[in-house]
Amino acid sequence: TKLAAGQAKSGATKPAEKPARAQDGSGEEVLQTVLAWAGAWSKQNVETYLAFYAQDFKTPKGEARSEWEAARRQRISGPKKIEVAVESPKVTLRDQNNAVVSFRQMYRSDNLNIKSSKTLVMVRSDGRWLIQQERAGG
To answer: Which stretches of the chain are assigned E, i.e. beta strand?
Structure first.
């Protein structure tokens, strides 16, 4: 199942595949948030992209949030074009305010084409799902 950023799932899934949608509304909200995040990244809308991250986001290398944001701004606004797609997403709800989403991420830009496993630890804050931690490689 390949879901391009901002694109609704269409057609039937193959029986062997896990469904992209969770069984309840909260899981669906989490999935829609992930797709919107990928969409903002693809559109190179840095402010919207950064707004998907929780205030207590754990930066990948433990760097200061401001340092991480500056690096992300440069990497997102630099290429002429970016395309990010989410494949085979699996939403696991830990409770009503915590979820984990695992998926294959397809990233393509002017000079880079990467497929990788990604895991997002999500937290609900003020009614919105936000990214608390992001891990590449599973």
So the answer is: 2-4, 53-58, 82-95, 98-109, 113-125, 128-136
Sign of CA dihedral 12, 14, 19, 20: negative
Instruction: Tell me the whole-structure pTM to 2 decimals.
Output: 0.81
Tell whether the model's pLDDT for residue 8 goes beyond 90.
no
114 DSSP 8-state letter: E
What are the backbone angles phi and psi of residue 38, rounded to the nearest 5°? Answer: -65, -35
DSSP conformation letters of 43-82 = TT-HHHHHTTEEEEEE-TTS--HHHHHHHHHHHHHSSS-E
**Burial bucket for residue 8 (CB in 10 Å: 0-12, 13-18, 19+):** exposed
- The CATH number assigned to the domain holding 66 equals 3.10.450.50
Tell me how far apart the alpha carbons of residues 28 and 3 are, in angstroms, rounded to a whole number. 14
The whole domain housing 59 covers 2-136
Is the pLDDT confidence value at 17 over 70? Answer: no
pLDDT tens profile 45-88: 999 999 999 999 999 999 999 999 999 999 999 999 999 999 99
